[in-house]
Amino acid sequence: MSQWQKRDQKWITLIALLTLVYLIVLGIVVILLRRPTPAPITILPPPAANTPAIPQPLRVYVSGAVAKPDVYGLPGGSTVKDAITAAGGPTENADLDRINLALGVQHQQHVYVPVKGEVGLSALVPSNPSPAGEPCVDINRATAAELETLPGIGPALAERIIVYRQTHGPFTRIEDIQEVSGIGEKTFEKIKDLICVSR
Predict the structure, then answer these.
(1) pLDDT averaged over consecutive 10-residue blocks of the chain (199 residues)?
(2) Taking CA 184 as the corner, what is the angle to CA 181 and CA 188, rounded to the nearest 5 degrees?
(3) For 133, phi and psi rounded to 5 degrees?
(4) How many other β-carbons are positioned within 10 Å of the β-carbon of residue 100?
(5) N or C: which end of the chain has fewer CB within 10 A?
(6) Could you tell me if 120 and 140 are in contact, meaning their C-beta atoms sit under 8 angstroms apart?
(7) Are 162 and 110 in contact (CB under 8 A)?
(8) DSSP string, the chain
């Protein structure tokens, strides 16, 4: 084989190798271009601090003309009727016409079922509305949380008010709240225009 033929063969071999490399690279590029683009990764921020928590069972105190007065755990969205049912149902002398059975209950609410002919906790109209028609806290029906909105009334005093009315019956006038241990003239002066009693 002549020297020129050897040189031509080297060039042919080199061109063939370059062509092969080119085709391989071109094939890889085509494959990559045809490959579907993956969806972008989205990083979600952590839930906000004020995200509503999962509703917990409501604690409701049911008393009055029911079979088993006590504190009961009820699911969210429960009504007064559900609370009475949890307490064993109404007694024979319960006056269910004086309460709204469809009313939704709230956490730590007190549901009182009156006896037929009873005057007190079940009435809806306060005997002494607050000045300028502003809403008042009915000390015969208010929950502990509602009582604590009054100036000078903390958790301990709110509990004493509830225990007092359960033991002695409903207050007949706002001044009677001073019979509760810990509520003197100074405290009464602060709250007298903010409270009322139902009849």
Answers:
(1) 65 82 82 68 60 64 86 88 92 86 81 76 40 66 87 90 88 90 90 82
(2) 115
(3) 70, 15
(4) 12
(5) N
(6) yes
(7) yes
(8) --HHHHHHHHHHHHHHHHHHHHHHHHHHHHHHHHSPPPPPP--PPPPPTTSPPPPPPEEEEEEESBSS-EEEEE-TT-BHHHHHHHTT-B-TTB-GGGS-TTSBP-TT-EEEEPBTT--STT-SSBSSPPGGG---EETTT--HHHHTTSTT--HHHHHHHHHHHHHH---SSGGGGGGSTT--HHHHHHHTTTEE-B-
Q: State residue 32's pLDDT score.
A: 73
**What tokens were used for 152?**
């000078």
Distance, in Å, from the CA atom of 20 to the CA atom of 5, rounded to the nearest integer, reads 22
Structure tokens at 188: 């009464």
Q: What is the CA radius of gyration of the chain?
A: 39
